[in-house]
Specification:
The chain is α/β, with parallel strands linked by helices. 34% of the residues lie in helices and 15% in strands. The chain contains 8 helices and 7 strands, in the order ααααβββαβαβαββα. Strands 2-1-5-4-3-6-7 form a 7-stranded mixed sheet. Strand 4, helix 6 and strand 5 form a beta-alpha-beta unit. It is globular.
């Protein structure tokens, strides 16, 4: 294989080779930072849905919420970053399993843990049971784990994976055009796979993380509960 000096070029090559090779690469080099393991070939141009710009009036509660959760960012969720937040992501669009359009605006009134993943991403696959467990524990009218697959063969491939590992509590969403990743990356909030954001009830971001985490941990649950209490 030719030498590549930059990660995006290597990512493009791997995607051209196929998703199986991407997964193999991720597994072989697992000691590398998880966010770089499964870096998507998303450096190219894709159609972006319009996003609201950062505006104080659109995120009135976010600043105080960030201050509230900051002391809780520790242990297995210590990689959460609050720098650069809040941003109004209510217009971020993707699809339901049946192909119908949906956006974060449809979750208004709920705290959302938004997770971008793909079946060829080994860390993504590893953390999915934890995300399912978090949804089972705290999901409801006030909170939802929203996992959005970026597989090009969505929704069939992620559905097969959900069924294979026994995911019971997560709703399948997808973005086969992979527009969400560069939209988040342009704000400095997505660098690899998986990428996760904490979104408040107004659709405003509070924190982001590159790489997997123990989302069913006590620390993660406490953070979600504190956000629900702060509203």
């Amino acid at each position: 294989m030719a030498h590549y000096d930059d990660i995006p070029s290597l990512a493009w090559l791997l995607m051209e080779e196929g998703e199986t090779e991407m997964l193999s690469f991720a597994q072989k080099f697992r000691p590398l930072r998880a966010g770089l393991l499964c870096l998507l070939a998303l450096s190219g141009t894709v159609a972006l849905a319009p996003l609201s710009v950062l505006a104080q009036e659109s995120c009135p509660a976010a600043k105080q919420q960030i201050e509230t959760i900051d002391p809780l960012i520790k242990g297995p969720i210590a990689a959460l970053q609050t720098n650069g937040h809040p941003v109004d992501f209510s217009g971020l669009a993707f699809k339901r399993e049946d192909g119908s359009a949906i956006s974060l605006a449809d979750f208004k009134g709920k705290t959302v843990l938004l997770n971008l993943w793909a079946t060829w991403c080994a860390p993504c696959r590893h953390e999915m049971p934890d995300l399912d467990a978090l949804q089972a524990k705290l999901g409801g009218d006030d909170f939802e784990v929203v996992t959005v697959s970026l597989d090009r063969k969505s929704p069939d491939k992620p559905r097969a994976f959900f069924d294979e590992i026994g995911i019971e509590h997560l709703t399948l969403y997808y973005d086969e055009k992979m527009a969400m990743f560069p939209a988040l990356r342009s704000k400095g909030m997505a660098f690899g796979m998986p990428s996760t954001l904490i979104i408040n009830k107004d659709g405003c971001s509070l924190a982001h993380m590159a790489g997997p985490a123990a989302w069913a941990s006590t620390e993660a649950q406490e953070l979600v509960k504190r956000l629900e209490e702060s509203d």
